[in-house]
Amino acid sequence: MFSLDCTGVFSGVLNMKSFDNRMASAVDDAGTKGWLVSILELGAWLGVLFTGYLADKLSRKYTIVLAVIVFCIGVVVQTSAFAPSSIFGGRFVTGLGVGSLSMAVPLYNAELAPPEVRGSLVALQQLAITFGIMVSFWIDYGTNYIGGTGDSQSEAAWRVALALQLVPAIILGVGILFMPFSPRWLVNNGRDDEALQVLSRARRLAPNSDLVQIEFLEIKAQYLFEQETSAIKFPDLQDGSWRSNFKLGLYGYLSLLQSRPLLYRVVVGSLTMFFQQWTGVNAILYYAPSIFKDLGLTGNTNSLLATGVVGIVMFLATIPAVIWVDKVGRKPVLISGAFIMAACHIIVAVLTGLYHDSWDSHVVAGWVACAFVWIFAMAFGYSWGPCSWILIAEIWPLSVRGKGVSIAASSNWMNNFIVGQVTPTMLEHINFGTFVFFGAFSFLGGLFIWFGVPETKALSLEEMDEIFGSAGMAAGEQERMHAIERQIGLDAYNDPDIDRASPVHSDIRKHNDSLIEKA
After folding, report:
1. CA–CA dist 279, 198 (Å, integer)
2. Residues near 393 by Cβ (< 8 Å), separated by ≥ 6?
3. Start-to-end Cα distance in the chain
4. What is the tens place of the pLDDT at every residue in 189-205?
5. What single string gives the DSSP state of each residue in 90-153?
6. Are 269 and 404 in contact (CB under 8 A)?
7. Are 152 and 21 in contact (CB under 8 A)?
8. Mean per-residue pLDDT over the chain, rounded
9. How confident is residue 339, by pLDDT bands cut at 50, 70 and 90?
């Protein structure tokens, strides 16, 4: 859904003749065109901010349902639009749903998935996004033919493309109703028995099996750890009132700015997402058909065809990242991707500067420029697409991980909004200078990762603290976590020496061991 509406379908719709005829007052002006595109990202930024509260109050499951309803309302308004104001309003409302889903769905997946596959879900999420982008580009290519590709084109060409966004939304909205509540949310709300049953059904094991009991107790320990951390940091805000809960959330975010090691992490997470957007990737995805026209591809059909290739190569390039990112490391992948993208931007800028007035007589140069746009898409697909999200998820201590990731995600959406807003004006007024601009930021992003970000591959929480200058923070948190594990009996499963395990549960281990020996 994110990739269909946010970056895919609408980029092709913008260049359809029938859409231009209907919405000419918005599409033909670079400033309003930028707002037409970027207002969705502004809505998504706001949607992210509200989702944390809603996910805790309504549950992850019902927050997803609510976000799907909001998304569908926005799509219906856009599909039935007869004036630019409806597109503006519809995209803003759709953005609220997109932003909420971009946070609620990964959260739900991570809390329901088995622990051993949670890490790979981050990269798989990016793979799913690039797959959606690829599909959406080809939807545009197909619907562009409805009624013809010129002045005879039917308005169904862009209305059908927009309406098709409802299909995955409805599937998600209906499908999630048949899914269980997040076991983490159930534990947080004192519904331990239900959480145990959810884990039992999800793992297809008996509720008293070791694996289910261990996972349940791990969730319980994490919840108690967060409650204890809150009580230690803010003992006067534990009365459970709305006012106190609001202050707890606010002070929790402010605490990230008051500690130098945590502030360093905030800078790394926020700037990583800043540079991800200022590589120009969404400028390419939003305005690819226009860019390909500017590179000499005549006709809307040819530009949409070239845009479809962008989706294919980006999707294919994401697959190696899913497989090898944990072997190669974050820094080599991000640095190489940034420098390749910078080189592509500069080459396209040079070719555009030389031949922008004579593409007809320099067809080969035009295709070379197009090829480097495709190479750029491949470079982003294997590097900054998945790896930036992996990096920002793993640099935080347990006690502030949720808040830290939300700050980085907020940076992503806000910079996404700015890029979408300014790109049409840049293409109109500085032309090939747009590519120089994004190329410079891509290069700076590579330097930032090279000199400002440590390698985080396969590091423990304690090692992460050492490289971020807060040695002992994770060790102290781990000590408190171990105390909680002993309190609830989780150590009976974790400690190989049953004599050191808590006495309440050591009998469980001995009983299980005897069963194994008999078997």
Report:
1. 42
2. 122, 401, 405
3. 49
4. 999 999 999 999 988 88
5. HHHHHHHHHHHHHHHHHHHHHHHS-GGGHHHHHHHHHHHHHHHHHHHHHHHHHHTTTT-SSTT-
6. yes
7. no
8. 84
9. very high
